[in-house]
Design goal:
mainly alpha
Length: 121
């Protein structure tokens, strides 16, 4: 049961990264490389890599992502992973992050700490 919970949490975090990469309507090479790097660090198997590629093909779905996030702790992890996945350089990405924080109940202090962790003002 614990292993299944960890796998579910990892899946939600990956979905967050993928949705963040899709937020501006295009997934650039840098975003792909960041997500691929996370998969490699996690020693992801072929099935997981195929699942990620399938997720890239579909549309971003913030509603489903928010429903899949079980609590504030996982919400913070998803938000942080989203920050790692993208260069926050478009209004669409800023809007996505704001919506993610708001809809998952992350308060401004937590969001500020997460931004500081990745070197964003």
């Amino acid at each position: 049961a614990e292993e299944q919970a960890l796998e579910s949490q990892a899946s939600v975090i990956l979905k967050g990264m993928i949705n963040a990469a899709k937020a501006d309507g295009q997934i650039d090479q840098s975003e792909l490389e960041k997500i691929a790097g996370r998969l490699k660090e996690a020693d992801a198997d072929d099935a997981t890599r195929r699942w990620v590629m399938d997720e890239f093909k579909g549309p971003a779905d913030l509603n489903q992502l928010v429903r899949d996030i079980p609590d504030e702790s996982v919400a913070a992890q998803v938000y942080l992973a989203s920050l790692f996945a993208i260069e926050v350089d478009t209004q669409a990405e800023i809007d996505y992050l704001q919506q993610l924080a708001q809809r998952t109940g992350l308060n401004a202090g937590v969001v500020q700490q997460l931004h500081q962790m990745v070197g964003l003002a």
